[in-house]
Amino acid sequence: MKAYKAILFDLDNTLLDYDASERESMQGAIRRFGLPDREGFLWEAFRAAFAPINWTYWSERMARNLHISQVLEYSFRDTLAQLGHDGVPAAELAAAYWELFCSSCRFMDGTPELLPRLHGAYALGIVSNGIGEAQRKRLATGGILHYFPHVFVSDEVGAAKPDRLIFDRAVASLGVPRADILFVGDNLKDDYEGARAAGIDFCHYNPGRKPADAAIAPDYTIHALFELDAIISREEEQR
């Protein structure tokens, strides 16, 4: 067994609960503008309409050179129009959502307990697809930014997982051989494929126990963050 010197983490839905933060921030924003008081407004319908619209703008943002504020404004605008809720200023609604989201930090189970155990024993870093402003502010809000001297976010690097470039930047920053780095993430496309392309061992965090293709073979699989301790302890025995 190898003894790792550094551990890189995906952020959203690995250490931080993105889904919970997004939901709470969106609900908070629409309450500011009185949308729940409108006749015919249903939260479930709003969220269901917003998701595919937002994904389209998010996916096209680099090709169209869209700022995150535009992605959100256009997403809210189109959702409101689709559902017939006219008169709500989409740009202001988007700004309210972004303010709430950037100041939100909901942890995945086990995150606050895991990081102090790793801090000081391993070089720690983040490799995340997202917006640097939001990711850094959310880490700071949760009081865990100081654990991560190495933070690499796709919009700052100019490359998104699974592109190995973002991993190569992280490896160079850590200053240890890539064979001594473990990457922990939940996504079998962005995280698994990216780590494999970069020659980094991968631990699949799979709390929902979702089945994976038989051709996908992560080095480790865990269903709770505390299970990472067992992997680390086995590695430490070899030191």
Automatic annotation (TrEMBL):
Keyword flag Mitochondrion: no
GO MF terms held by the record: hydrolase activity
Keywords, alphabetical: Hydrolase
Presence of the UniProt keyword Iron-sulfur in the record: no
Domain of life per record: Bacteria
Coiled coil spans: none
Pfam families attached to this UniProt entry: Hydrolase (PF00702)
NCBIfam families the UniProt entry points to: HAD-SF-IA-v1
Name of this chain's protein: HAD-IA family hydrolase
Organism per entry: Paenibacillus artemisiicola
